[in-house]
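Private note to self, pasted from the team thread so I don't lose it. Backbone tokens:
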């Protein structure tokens, strides 16, 4: 089993910055990729960014150039800059394995609220 614990989030004004952190523990050999998803009000959960152990990055078009994912051992971070009101969502940390079709995320954090509002 893998446990993911998120920290960060909060309320920020449009144009501001915020950071999220996630610490993994447990059977760390069971995953080789980590990422961040979000669920905006009334929308399905969507992948925001991900990073594999081999250093492959993914960013959703809506956040590319504004968000940065990074990883350090058992920590994964999401730096969010130039935030917009439409970035308001619950952000989830995820971990999983690289498979033929992409990444199979099987472990999830509890979620962290990010609110962008003036």
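Design output:
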């Amino acid at each position: 089993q893998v446990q993911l614990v998120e920290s960060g989030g909060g309320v920020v004004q449009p144009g501001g910055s915020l950071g999220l952190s996630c610490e993994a523990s447990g059977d760390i050999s069971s995953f080789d990729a980590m990422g961040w998803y979000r669920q905006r009000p009334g929308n399905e959960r969507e992948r925001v960014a991900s990073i594999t152990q081999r250093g492959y990055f993914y960013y959703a078009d809506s956040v590319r150039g504004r968000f940065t994912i990074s990883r350090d051992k058992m920590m994964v971070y999401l730096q969010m800059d130039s935030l917009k009101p439409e970035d308001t969502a619950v952000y989830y940390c995820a971990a999983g394995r690289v498979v033929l079709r992409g990444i199979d995320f099987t472990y999830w954090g509890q979620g962290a609220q990010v609110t962008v509002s003036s």
